[in-house]
Write a structure and sequence with these properties.
Elements (H helix, E strand, L loop, with lengths): L1 H8 L2 H4 L2 H10 L16 H4 L3
Amino acid sequence: SLEEACECVSKFDVYVPKKVIDAMCAYMGHPKRCPHGDEIPRDTECCGVS
């Protein structure tokens, strides 16, 4: 379910190297929101925002 996916992803950065997360973010076009419509925290190094 979407709820289970969000729960798993919330712990993703603990287990996956930042380089991999940044590559996934770039591949997906630096999404601003999750499928639920919640804001995704933006990383200045990856997404180029301040």
